[in-house]
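[audit] Reproducing an earlier prediction to check determinism. Same input, same settings, fresh worker. If the C-alpha cells differ from the archived copy the diff job will pick it up downstream; this log only records the rerun itself.
[audit] input (394 residues):
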Amino acid sequence: MNARQWMDISERCLMPTYRRYPLVLVKGEGTRVWDVDGKEYLDFGAGIAVCNLGHCHPRVVEAIKGQAQRLLHVSNLYHIVPQIELARMLVEYTFADRVFFCNSGAEANEGAIKLARLYARKFVEGDRYEIVTMRGSFHGRTMVTLAATGQEKVRKGFDPLPPGFVHVPYSDLEALEKAITPRTCGVMLEVVQGEGGVVVPSHEYLQGVARLCWERGLLLILDEVQTGMGRLGTLLGHESFGIVPHIVTLAKGLGGGVAIGALLATEEVARAFEPGTHASTFGGNPLACAAGKAVMEVMTTPGFLEEVKRKGEYFLSRLRDLASARGGVKEARGMGLMLALELDREAAPVINALMEGGFLTIPSGEKVVRFLPPLTVEKEEIDLLLAALEEVLP
C-alpha cells in the first residue's frame, strides 16, 4: 500500500489524539529513517528523545534478538536476570541505591509521587502530602501526572484533578520558598524543561532548590525522562549541575526504542516501599531490560558522553550564529543535544519546510523548533541540518 492508503486506515481506526504529520515511516538506521515511499530523512527528533543511540543500534538489536529467543516475560514474583543486571548498572553509575522498573515516563513519575507521599507518611512528622511543581512543566498524561504538570493546555477538560500539587514559576527560588508549607513533602521539577520550550535554568537556581530541600527536610524529585540517558552530555542530566536528588525518574532513552521506565531513589527514601505498596505487571520485563542493559553498556563506554558534549556545544554555537543573523529568531538555547530555536512566529512552517527537505524536527510549544537528534549524530549531519535551516528560517 502507498502512504495515502495507510493514512486512511490510520485516520479511520485510531483515536484522534495526535496531529500526525503526513508520513508513514517504515525503516530506520542510525540517524536516518525512510518512509513507505522510500524517501530518506535525517531524524532530529529521535522519537522525542527515545532513540538516543539512533534507530536500530546494532548492540540493542542484538540484545533484543537474543533475549526474545530465551525469555520474553515472567512475573515480578520471580527474580529476572536482565532486570537485576540493569538495576546493578544504574546503581553503579548513578546516585541511586534502589531501582523500580515500569513501562513509561508517566508511570515512573506516578511512582515517584507515591513514594514521596508514602515516605512522608511513614517517616516525617505532620500531614505532609503536597508536592511543589513548576509552571511550564510536563510530567505525563495520567490523572495524577496531569495534576503535577504545570501547563493548563494539557490539563484542560480533565477536572477535577487529584489534589496535592502547587505550581510555581520555574527558575524562581523565592516563589518556591514561599510555596512551602507544613503540608509540603517534596519538590518535583525537570532539570531542563522539554515540553515547556527547552528552558535551561541556572546552576545557582537548581543548587538553590537542592539546598532548600535538604534544609527543609523535603524530597528533591527530578523528572529526567527527557534529560536522562546522556541527553545533556552526562548520564543523568542533574550531574551537569552538581546537585544530588532523592528520587529520579527515567524512561525514553533508557530502552533504546523499547518501552521502559525506571524510578531511582536513595536507600533512605526507597525503604518506604514494601511488598504490596507498588507494582507493575510488565515493568522490568526481560526484553526491555536486555535492551536497557545494551544502552547502558554503550553510554558508559569511555569517551561517549564527552563526545555528546562536544557535538552539543558545536550545534548550539552554530544555532546561536543563526539566531543572531536572522531577525525572525528570538533565541537559540539548550544543553547537550537537547536544543531549540525560539521564533517570533509560529514554528510549524519551519518544521514542515524542513520535513519537505528531508529533516525531521519537532515543536515545543507554538513558537519553538526543538532538536533532539540521536546522541550518535555526526557533525556532518548537524551541518546538513544547519544548512537546511538557513534556507527555511524567516
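[audit] rerun output stored. Observation attached for the diff report: The mean pLDDT is 97.
[audit] end
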